[in-house]
Amino acid sequence: MYDDTVAVLENRPLTGGHFLLSLHSPRQAKATRPGQFAMVRLLGRSDVLLRRPMSIFDVRPGIADCRLTIDDCKTAATEPSAPGSSPAKRELTGEPRDVFQSPIDNRQSAIPGNRQSAIPEAPAIIQLLYKVVGRGTRLMAELGPGDQVGLLAPLGHGFFAEEYFDRARAADEVLHVAGGIGIAALLLAARQLAAAGLRQRLFFGGRTRDDLVGVDEFAPYAHEIAVATEDGSRGHRGYVTRPLEEYLAGNRRKKFLMMACGPWAMLEATVERAKRYGHACLVSMENRMGCGLGVCLGCSIRVHGTGHGTYERVCTEGPVFWAEKVI
Ligand SMILES: Cc1cc2nc3c(=O)[nH]c(=O)nc-3n(C[C@H](O)[C@H](O)[C@H](O)COP(=O)(O)OP(=O)(O)OC[C@H]3O[C@@H](n4cnc5c(N)ncnc54)[C@H](O)[C@@H]3O)c2cc1C
Ligand code: FES
């Protein structure tokens, strides 16, 4: 974990008040593992003292030289991509694709046995996918290329590499269940599992179609994506747990590993389905955080333990837990 001041390369507005923030931070990018998160500090803002926790959505190759100046980063992010330009430039200016219209095929990305490929060889860019919900995220939305933020990352233990890999390998399919911005916690894991040649399916819910961000990036790793919106503007009308339930009920003989991140109500409903159909389930939990480092205990949640249960810190023992552990 490093406490660095890093440069903003791009802060791309998406639909529904969501943004994709690209930060130049080679050593933090290199240290990142699937399921980990970062704490963002807005510099020079005495009115927003606490850092804001954000899942590390993606780690990308790019400008590997940490000695680059902020102006270099700014130029790299805003220059139009040209044949032979660096991967970072091409990635940051890539054309959007409508994954709901195109068939999903992850065969090209499946590299059997390669566990490390969730993180590219020369990682340099950390991407955070966030939604504006309050003062801190509203100020984050004002960041532009060349600005700086404090970034404490990577934090948390993320997915339990060996244990979840073994369960994923033993399953017929990995089912990702994401509610809105919860998808940010799952992309790196999906890429890692796809690299090992494992079959995956995404159940993705939002209030409206504008909440379905990050799905373009996820699409290469999922054999199928089932979408639900509460207003019916895309996919099934209602909660995402409905198509999930239908799939589980129609495939009772199959063994799944479920991985979920989203609002607590969605997590609760997902875990209830996992229990009912007898599948292992990992949940990436979110809670209000003070320090992100295991010191303030502000993020503690109740878990099963001795006596009436005990507490664990989302920032340190989590954010990923086996579902049966969480009360
Ligand atoms: C491990 C972890 C990973 C996260 N990953 C992401 C992510 O990838 N993208 C993203 O957009 N958000 C993520 N969050 C939530 C994010 O931290 C909050 O939305 C953010 O801190 C709100 O800051 P604010 O100043 O804008 O809002 P505040 O003014 O502090 O609060 C505004 C509203 O947001 C709610 N809120 C505040 N903090 C949290 C929180 N920690 N979790 C849920 N709701 C909160 C409040 O209840 C309130 O309704 C994550 C949280 C955790 C703990
Ligand atoms: S946020 Fe301080 S202990 Fe987790």
Which key phrases capture this entry?
327 residues; Elongation Factor Tu (Ef-tu), domain 3; 2 domains; 7-stranded mixed β-sheet; 9 helices; 16 strands; 23% helix
Number of domains: 2
Order of neighbouring strands in the sheet with most strands: 4-3-7-1-2-6-5
Tally of contiguous helical segments: 9
Shape: globular
Main sheet summary: 7 strands, antiparallel
The CATH superfamily of the largest domain is known as: Nucleotide-binding domain of ferredoxin-NADP reductase (FNR) module
- What value does the Rg take, in angstroms? 19 Å
Strand content: 25-35%
The CATH architecture of the largest domain comes to 3-Layer(aba) Sandwich
Provide mean pLDDT, rounded. Answer: 85
Helices and strands, in N-to-C order? EEHEEEHHEHEHEHEHEEHEHEEEE
CATH topology tier name of the largest domain: Rossmann fold
Counting helices, strands and paired strands, the structural category is alpha/beta
Question: Cofactors and ligands present?
Answer: flavin-adenine dinucleotide, FE2/S2 (inorganic) cluster
In terms of per-residue confidence, which ranges show pLDDT below 50 for 5 or more consecutive residues?
64-116
Distance between the termini: 29 Å
For the record, the CATH class of the largest domain is Alpha Beta
Helix content: 10-25%
Number of strands: 16
